[in-house]
Amino acid sequence: MLLLSINQVIRQFDRDPILDGVSFEVRAGEKIGLVGPNGAGKTTLMKILTGTDDPDKGECVFHAGAQAALLEQAAEFSASRTLLDEAKDGLAPLYALQREAEETALQIAAETQPAIREKLQRRYDAVQLELHRHSAYNIDHRVDEVLLGLGFTRDQYDRPITQFSGGQQNRVLLARLLLAAPDLMLLDEPTNHLDIEATEWLEGFLARCEQAILVVSHDRYFLDKVTNRTLELHAGTVDDYPGNFSKYWELKAERSELLARTFEKQQAYIDKTEDFIRRNHYSNSVQAHDREKKLARLERVERPREIVAPAMAFGKPKRAGDWVIEANQLTKGFGTPLFTEVSLKILRGQRIGIFGPNGSGKTTLLRTLLGELTPDAGTVRFGTNVEVAYYDQQLAGIGPEVTVVDAVRPANNPAMLPAAIRDLVAKFGLRGDIVHQTVGSLSGGERSKVALAKVAALNANVLILDEPTNHLDLWSRGALEDALREFEGTVLFVSHDRYFMDRVATHIFAFEPGRWRLFEGNYTNYLASLRRAREEAGQAQAAAEQRAREQAASAQKPTAQTRRKRKFPYRKVEDLEVEIASIEARIAELQEQLGNPDLYRDGQKVKDVRDSFETAQATLSQLYEHWEEASELN
Prior knowledge:
Blueprint: E1 2-12, E2 17-27, E3 31-35, H1 42-50, E4 57-62, E5 68-70, H2 83-88, H3 92-110, H4 114-133, H5 139-149, H6 166-180, E6 184-188, H7 196-208, E7 212-216, H8 220-226, E8 229-234, E9 237-242, H9 245-280, H10 286-297, E10 323-334, E11 336-347, E12 351-355, H11 362-370, E13 377-382, E14 388-391, H12 404-408, H13 418-427, H14 444-457, E15 462-466, H15 474-486, E16 490-494, H16 498-504, E17 507-512, E18 515-520, H17 523-556, H18 573-594, H19 603-633
Parallel strand pairs: 3-7, 3-8, 5-6, 6-7, 12-16, 12-17, 14-15, 15-16
Antiparallel strand pairs: 1-2, 1-4, 8-9, 10-11, 10-13, 17-18
């Protein structure tokens, strides 16, 4: 079913339109990733789809009453509202239907006039049908599923929403949208403020849900798990690709290569034809006029549009010793320890990715290793010739009032010429007049590139990076990955970007429940090791349980002297099993009746079904006991 049609949408703020003839359709159940470089207009398009912005030209048409909702990035909350209150708002219409059903049932019971009673009964039936259609009988379970999946705990349900952090409040907004389940969910960076565990839960939830999704995300793992179609927004228009992000990346490369060959071939033909026309134009050559007409009718192939990634690089650092940082029995916390007894020796050339749940102490560990925080216990030492550059995810070291050139100028080389700085920042995608702008006037992605360029300008041999991919688009993330893989020094970084961690890390430092662990390999290798450990633990537990059952059976096996007397008359085991199956089927039938809302209109029928259910359960319990005796004594 067609939900949405976008037809030739144009939106212009400056001289050039940001959306210049965008057209596509969305059908029910589709999971679509919307990708494009920073500034391509993805958020503008999302606002147009929800009606919070209007196109200058073109139209956005929702079909068959379809509804769309955009994930809010911020909201005003009342101090009197709790976490649970805000989450339940997503299901407000269903809670209202539940209340109406209860009130209508009471009115039916009290009404004596047949005509009014019949009218109320019809309304009650319609409400029950709607509740059944939306599976509203397990509505509280759905709230639990979403809140717990997004990392909240039940003891937080009754806390005032204003007591939660900004990131937690954004997760509440996401929970509310997921519970509301509009026909089309518009998700703009839904994994912001989520740790890896919550992100993986969200991937599963969205992949299973029936609603259509249009999602903007820089998380390539997330896009691969959730989406089955990709729209690339660039240069004001959209290209449509089947498949998830990885498939899009593959198809785009193939399409670009084909278009480039076709374009070059046509350009060669045009150049050759134009040269012939020029040489023969004044001789009134019939061939020249004929080729001129053909050239005028020729459908020109456009140059393939390319999204050019910046050529990031961190230079060739001075060689450090064999080891660069050593932590011994390091403990740090604020009131309660975040981590304890961390002993870590980082060797030259290693790239160690740190990950774990929010609040596990990842940034605190970096700052303690740097000496910005004093450890509660333990020591930190630096190796020979170690020079460190630190990327702070808050960008605290870059003042908003300074220009890009001044922000990047390294403290260890204050005489670095502006031309050299401009060349450096150009490698990070900052060109032209932007180098003379103040940092505070830049977008989030541009400020991140300034901070990375500042790190590169220091030419350090140890890079310590805290969430370096924040605000970077997919192409800039890829460029950063390549730059770090080519870097000859050592890298220690924190990231929630699993794709980035997979491509960059040679080792994983993981904060796991109740412990930390250093693992050799990338993120995929680490996950494989966890799966193996779980499988081995499960096999060991199953073996232990089997041994325990065998020992218990051996201890309880009756001897000739202790064999028990029969409690029930002799019956064949096979006959008992047939009767047990029949009773179990009867119980399943009665359970289905008890789950039917129509049953509860007749009080006597409810009593009869419940009595039958209880009798069947008692009979089944006795049959099980009889079967056990027959299996042992027959």
